[in-house]
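quick q for whoever's on today - can somebody do inverse folding on this one?? i tried earlier but teh output was garbage lol. tokens:
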């Protein structure tokens, strides 16, 4: 009898380890709100459809919000918190100030969701779903969004300043910043394809069009017309020039033609480790779409608050 006890104990330990591993991997689930808010995805999609119909750019803006949220202490809706007299959020960090937008759309979705399912769905999950829907509505791929994130009670302006990748970064710095979040160089190159939609401010690409040499001359001249060497910081240009309101693989074709708008874009195709993958994506839209969708799920899994951590915010702009 005594000899059986250690075996039983060992098997119990292995079972506990297995269950705890499964629990860690299954913290988020696509079916998280299946019973508590069954119409959630329809509510989000309807609001995003209206928003994109009003302004196609909003799809890119919401996608960027999600990216900037996830890269600062995980996908916890900290980017949505307003500054107050006693609280400093992330909205005025350098990467977000005068450029992060779409907050009103998230507010609208949140109020619609609250009307259907009071105090149930987190702002973090709403942002994750809205980002996916914006991509789909502009012609991009779809994916199942794992859900069950909770909302942060804190934010970090300093982390937003230091951890969101810079448009001026070189390839090594970009790979390093993604690696710090558990994302691969392939994820970096796939997620950068989000720049197939949206606009950038002159201040983010001025150095590229006046100083970089790995740039198509006609493209640089076109961009300089609306981005002077000084002044006009907030003048806008499309991140991808061929189909800037359609989610496709033309971003990579631009890179191959040395028409990346940001220095960080062109770094992906500049004689380095990502050149072959950029060529692959430029020739194979399906490969890009599947890699982008998979990378979005991985990014959405960065350090979520789950269980009893965080809270379900009633208003996405303020902690409860």
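ok took a stab at it. sequence:
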């Amino acid at each position: 009898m005594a000899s059986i006890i250690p075996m039983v104990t060992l098997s119990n330990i292995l079972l506990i380890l297995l269950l705890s591993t499964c629990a860690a991997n299954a913290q988020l689930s696509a079916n998280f709100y299946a019973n508590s808010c069954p119409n959630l995805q329809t509510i989000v999609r309807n609001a995003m459809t209206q928003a994109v119909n009003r302004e196609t750019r909003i799809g890119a803006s919401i996608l960027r919000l999600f990216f900037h949220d996830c890269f600062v202490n995980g996908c916890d809706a900290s980017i949505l918190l307003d500054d107050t007299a006693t609280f400093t959020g992330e909205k005025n960090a350098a990467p977000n100030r005068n450029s992060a937008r779409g907050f009103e759309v998230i507010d609208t979705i949140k109020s619609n969701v609250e009307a259907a399912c009071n105090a149930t769905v987190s702002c973090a999950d709403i942002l994750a779903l809205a980002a996916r829907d914006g991509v789909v509505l502009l012609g991009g791929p779809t994916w199942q969004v794992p859900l069950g994130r909770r909302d942060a009670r804190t934010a970090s302006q300093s982390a937003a300043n230091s951890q969101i990748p810079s448009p001026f970064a070189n390839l090594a710095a970009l790979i390093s910043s993604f690696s710090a979040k558990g994302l691969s160089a392939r994820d970096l190159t796939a997620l950068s394809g989000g720049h197939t939609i949206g606009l950038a401010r002159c201040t983010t690409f001025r150095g590229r069009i006046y100083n970089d040499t790995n740039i198509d001359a006609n493209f640089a001249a076109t961009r300089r017309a609306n981005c002077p060497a000084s002044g006009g910081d907030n003048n806008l240009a499309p991140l991808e020039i061929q189909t800037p309101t359609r989610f496709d693989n033309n971003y990579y074709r631009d890179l191959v033609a040395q028409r990346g708008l940001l220095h960080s874009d062109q770094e992906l195709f500049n004689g380095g480790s990502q050149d072959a993958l950029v060529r692959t994506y430029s020739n194979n839209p399906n490969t890009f779409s599947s890699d982008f969708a998979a990378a979005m799920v991985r990014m959405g899994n960065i350090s979520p608050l789950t269980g009893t951590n965080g809270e379900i915010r009633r208003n996405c702009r303020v902690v409860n």
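fwiw The radius of gyration is 21 Å. also Residues 1-11, 13-26 have pLDDT under 50 and may be disordered. so keep that in mind when u check it
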